[in-house]
Protein: DUF3147 family protein
Organism: Tanticharoenia sakaeratensis NBRC 103193
Amino acid sequence: MFFLVKTALSGLIIALVSTVARRYPGIGALIASLPLISVLGMLWLWQETHDPIRMQAHVTATFWYVIPSLPMFLAIPWAMRHGTPFHAALLGGCLLTVVLYLATTIIGRKLGLPL
C-alpha cells in the first residue's frame, strides 16, 4: 500500500508540472526545480528505515549528484536554439548528464566523497 501512495504522489507532481507548464512555463519550471522528489525520497527513506546514518549518506550523495545534472538544463535549450529537434536535444542532454554522473562518481570516490 505504501508503494502505491508513493507512486501516486510522485505521479501527481509530474502531472502538475506538465499541466502548469503548458500555460505558465516559468511557474512550471519553478515547481519542477523545487527539490520535491528529493524531499519525498527522504521522507520515504526515513519512513522505511529511521536510519540517520543512511539518511545522511543519501542527502550528501544527492547534493553531489545534483551538480552534474545542472548542465543538462543549459545544453537542451542551447541545442534547440541551434536547430536540434527536441528529442535529439533531450537525448543529448541526458547523455551529457550520464557522462557527468560517471565522472562525478569516479572523481568523487578518489576524493573520498560518499557516493
About this structure: The chain has six helices and no strands. The two ends are 30 Å apart (CA to CA).
